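Subject — a protein and its fold
Encoding — discrete vocabulary of local shapes:
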Amino acid sequence: MRATGYVRKLDSLGRIVLPKSLRKELKISEGDDIEMYVDEDGNVVLDKYVPRCVFCDVAKTDVINFKGKIICRDCLNDM
């Protein structure tokens, strides 16, 4: 993980502002879903959300929603 030099305070509702230059670098736009998780070292990680197939667990943009489950076209074709 690399240091960005950005430091932001958490507001009373638990929000932070991602600087415009960082959003541009990460290709994050207004309205995009952001995934949050804690890595094995205890760091909070923010990432642009990309849907993952329930079968192969690969993050792909070419997915469909089948009865509430995300399935990639490759796994759908294998069925």
In short: The mean pLDDT is 87. The helical segments are 20-25, 73-78.
